Here is the input.
Amino acid sequence: MTKHFNRELEAIQTRLLTLFGVVEQMISDAKRALCDREIDRVARVMDRDKHVNAEEVLIEEECLKILALHQPVASDLRQVTTMFKINGDLERIGDLACNIAERAESLHQYPYFPIPDQLPEMARESTEMVRNALNAFVGLNLELAKQVIQSDPRVDQLNREVIAEMKSVMTSQSELVESALHCFSASRHLERIADHAENIAEDVIYLISGEIIRHKHGDFMTKVK
Amino acid sequence: MNVRTLTPMPEEISSVPSTRELAVTIRSFNAFYGDLQALKDINLEVPERQVTAFIGPSGCGKSTLLKWINRMNDMVLNAHANGELILGKQDVLSRQTDVVDLRRRVGMVFQKPNPFPKSIFDNVAFGAKLHFKISKSELDQLVEWALRKAALWDEVKDRLKQSALGLSGGQQQRLCIARAIAVGPEVMLMDEPCSALDPGSTTRIEDLIFELAKQFTIIIVTHNLQQAARCSDRTAFFYEGKIVEAGETNQLFTRPAQKRTEDYVTGKFG
Here is the structure.
């Protein structure tokens, strides 16, 4: 029973790690489509999303099967529920990468619209957060998970800067309103990707410590210092 | 043994007080069968009107402890114990303890249903007639109350004079529970009460445990970890005669503090 259970758990974990890789590539492609205007990458992002959606359903079914058949408890239960939740976050990140790619496609119509410097930085930070969340999950690394959570305010700040800049563009140059709105949305989507990476880090902390730290980061960070 | 007038059938307590009294307190308790030490330095507090589950692999001492709480082990040759085992305020191990009265206060339900070869009514009335001065109408009332509490009344009300041995296994087990609660116990000990029952009967007993816990303190020994997780408020994990970990069931099954508990509840050993 335990061997059988572990085998199934490992199979789900392998699928989830592959999904991490695909989603990370999608963010990277979406970023290049947006910031470097490599528009051929848009189609790649969209194609990969179909695969991500199918995998998400499959992983969810496998997790439900394990819950129903093995009724895991303690660390096994935390492992299954964490994978279940990470799976949902990864699928959402995939969707957000698609949204960014769509914005990139729209912005392509405005070749002279200047992409704010903060956007590539936000993309880099968000990708780093997703990668670190993955590494924290694989290595059960509490410190790294905390680091992901601590990175989020930086992305929020960059997003606020982009919004302020876009507001100013829209006020001063009315012909750029549409392109500024696309840029505004792309920034918002990047910020949401970072939020999902943060959610994954929170789930990893639950997996390791058994503590649900959502909505109370401050208490936890102080406690585990 | 004291024959007493019938105490009023206890009412359900609708509001839970913020602090619970302890139904059973165990301190530095050791139990032996001859030279073999079955329980080592047990310390445990069992709060009243909650379900406490004892879990652990076979031979870890959980049934031994259960049987000391109502001194069933008195009947086992060479069984002896030391330390403190307090029921409410009464020292269970004291020589002065009236064991018949103790067993009225601490009812027991066994793995295999064991109704007396008597009618359904007499099974429930038996203990009450022994312990209480009670009129016929009061006895009728008490039997109905106990059978209703045990969720059996509707199934047997038209055949109270028939033999209890004609009931199904699940019904017999609920009858044993009715028989135990009819004498007004404070604590109910249940030693694997569902292990001989089918899933449907198991569910009914588990529902019953949930209802009874509003009024009685329940200690259940079970090998079914899911049952412990479903039914109990608190769980104590026994291993090789010691309590490895005791605490809230929710915590013990989601984030146990001890590695050994983790390994046991996740099926890595035992």
